[in-house]
Design goal:
CATH superfamily of one domain in chain B: GAF domain
Helix content of chain B: 40-55%
Shape of chain A: flat
Number of domains of chain A: 1
Oligomer: heterodimer
Strand content of chain B: 5-15%
Strand content of chain A: under 5%
Strand order of the largest sheet of chain B: 2-1-5-4-3
Largest interface: A-B, 45 and 41 residues
Radius of gyration of chain B: 65 Å
Shape of chain B: rod-shaped
CATH topology of one domain in chain B: Beta-Lactamase
Order of helices and strands of chain B: HHEEHEEEHHEHEHEEHEHEHE
Helix content of chain A: over 70%
CATH architecture of one domain in chain B: 2-Layer Sandwich
Chain lengths: ~170, ~400
């Protein structure tokens, strides 16, 4: 009888935790945070494409002929995805791209940690601290947040609001 | 003798009686003829003005009158018609004048009746007192076709200058009654015509309304279709918001590429998208062995072109670190006094950057002719087991 009571209590706690973890407002907070990070990170990289190209090159993953074009295009992709995510226009597609980018960054970090490359992550500026395992953990947290946004984010989407307003009309 | 005289007188009386009877019959015949002619003349007419003209001509002929005037008013629609003949010249009669004349005649009529088809003799000779009328009627009749349509007939003196007899007056009444019937019929005909016109107009309006309704129906149908289409589009869009479409990715990438290239093109911090080394001739390469020998004999300067972090990790013994990013400073500090003929060997490249080629190019720009790149770089050096510094 006592065991059954404990089991019911555990179930209630689990359900409550599940409700908190999958809550839409949590997802909204993640969305604003991730979008803000991407917009902020993109601004510097767009202004100093040369420095960002050096950062990419220091990872030693992509061929030399694609470094500059990647350094030019990637910050804009980050900026546009960040803006779309924060405004809730094509948010699902934007967060999918962000998940992809974070996955690539994570793999690049893992590869270079294994290689013991003495470089900063270059996530925000070229003169970042030397990357270590905490950089990987931080990227993994961001990746988890982005995945959370993909599955649970439904609040304050500008696109959805406009469509609903048209539908009402 | 007396009998003969009596017979003669009696005969004379009979003859006189027969003459009177014949005269009476002739008059009746004349009356009937006049009535028949009037009916024949008026039967085909539907315009009040024409009826009045024809009638006036008839009665002036019948009674041998030199002057005649008929006025007929439709008080409902405020229209009047005038017919005149003979030596009279009446001024243009407006509606107010016509109405006033009708009122005066009605006022002077023997029987003041407005019943339909009523005819009355005008007995008051002072009906025109105070106004100027160009004729003095010998006979005047007031008639009413109905309560809203009425008029009068004036006939001047007979040409024979004799007065109208009772028979003639009676004939004039009969003919006028026939005339009023035709006028009434004409009025009815006009009313029917007007009704027909009105009906025709209404028909046109109705047709127009039906056309407009049909068009409106078509418009509504088109709008309904458009509405359904918009509804389905919205439904589709609402459904699509929660999904990821390949087109979204394509758009994201295309927009990013276009904007970034445009910005890079115009930005002062823009970088070349195509590697500059593609546009330059390939540098001279030197093998690891030759490099080792040259270094041993102090005949060459070795340069590590990689970023400082990599240099610090490990580098070839006595190599000078001169990455492209700080080339100018390092060159000033360490190469400004080096003889341009001195052999300079450069290494440092990876999959993502050809630092050695970049530095070799820039040294050549500084007039160093004897510049070559270590073939295989630091990896080949390591493979051969030559000394490295950490």
């Amino acid at each position: 009888m006592e065991e059954k009571r404990i089991s019911v209590g555990k179930m209630k706690i689990f359900k409550f935790a599940q409700k908190i973890v999958t809550h839409r407002y949590l997802s909204l907070a993640f969305r604003l945070y991730i979008a803000g990070i991407f917009i902020y990170a993109a601004m510097y990289k767009i202004s100093y494409a040369g420095e960002f190209a050096e950062t990419i090159a220091s990872y030693r993953i992509i061929p030399y002929w694609s470094v500059n074009i990647t350094a030019v295009v990637m910050p804009w992709l980050e900026l546009i995805c960040g803006l779309l995510l924060i405004s809730g226009i094509r948010a699902k597609a934007a967060v999918s791209v962000i998940i992809g980018l974070l996955a690539v960054f994570t793999i690049a970090i893992v590869v270079n940690l294994i290689r013991d490359t003495p470089i900063g992550c270059g996530c925000f500026k070229s003169l970042d601290e030397k990357m270590d395992w905490t950089t990987l953990v931080r990227d993994l947290i961001w990746l988890s947040m982005a995945i959370h946004i993909y599955f649970f984010d439904t609040l304050f989407h500008l696109e959805k609001k406009s469509i609903m307003r048209i539908k009402d009309v | 003798m007396a009998d003969a005289e009596h017979y003669k007188e009696s005969h004379q009386e009979i003859l006189e009686e027969a003459r009177k009877t014949r005269e009476n019959l002739d008059r009746k015949d004349f009356h009937l003829k006049a009535l028949l002619d009037t009916s024949r003349e008026l039967s085909g007419l539907t315009d009040p003005k024409k009826i009045m003209d024809a009638f006036l001509l008839m009665i002036m002929g019948t009674f041998s009158v030199g002057q005649g005037y008929i006025l007929f008013c439709d008080r409902e629609s405020k229209i009047h018609w005038v017919a005149e003949r003979g030596d009279i010249e009446t001024p243009e009669t407006d509606w107010e004048t016509a109405d006033s004349l009708i009122f005066r005649c009605f006022d002077g009529a023997e029987n003041k009746s407005l019943l339909p088809m009523s005819i009355s003799k005008v007995v008051d000779n002072n009906i025109f007192s105070g106004i100027e009328f160009p004729m003095t009627p010998e006979k005047a009749l007031f008639f009413a076709a109905d309560t809203q349509a009425m008029g009068f007939i004036f006939l001047g003196p007979k040409i024979s200058e004799t007065l109208f007899t009772e028979d003639e007056e009676e004939l004039l009444f009969t003919l006028t009654a026939s005339f009023v019937i035709y006028l009434k019929n004409a009025r009815a005909f006009t009313t029917i015509q007007n009704l027909n016109k009105d009906l025709e107009k209404r028909n046109i309006e109705l047709e127009q309304t039906i056309t407009e309704l049909t068009e409106a129906k078509q418009t509504i149908s088109v709008l309904e279709k458009a509405g359904d289409r918009i509804k389905s589009l919205i439904h589709h869009e609402v459904k699509r918001i929660g999904q990821v479409a390949p087109l979204d990715f394509a758009l994201l990438f295309v927009i990013s590429i276009v904007l970034s290239l445009l910005f890079n093109l115009t930005s002062p911090n823009g970088i070349p998208v195509v590697p500059p080394s593609w546009k330059r001739p390939a540098p001279d390469f030197i093998s690891v062995e030759k490099t080792q020998k040259a270094l041993k004999k102090n005949q060459a300067v070795i340069v590590d072109a990689r970023p400082v972090e990599f240099y610090k990790q490990e580098h070839i013994l006595s190599a000078i670190n001169m990455p492209p990013s700080i080339f100018d400073i390092v060159y000033m500090m360490k190469f400004s006094n080096v003889d341009p003929d001195t052999e300079i060997i450069i290494y440092g490249r990876n999959i993502s950057r050809q630092y050695d080629e970049e530095v070799a190019h820039r040294l050549k720009m500084e007039d160093h002719e004897n510049v070559s790149v270590l073939k295989g770089g630091i990896f080949a050096w390591k493979k051969k087991g030559y000394q490295l510094e950490k």
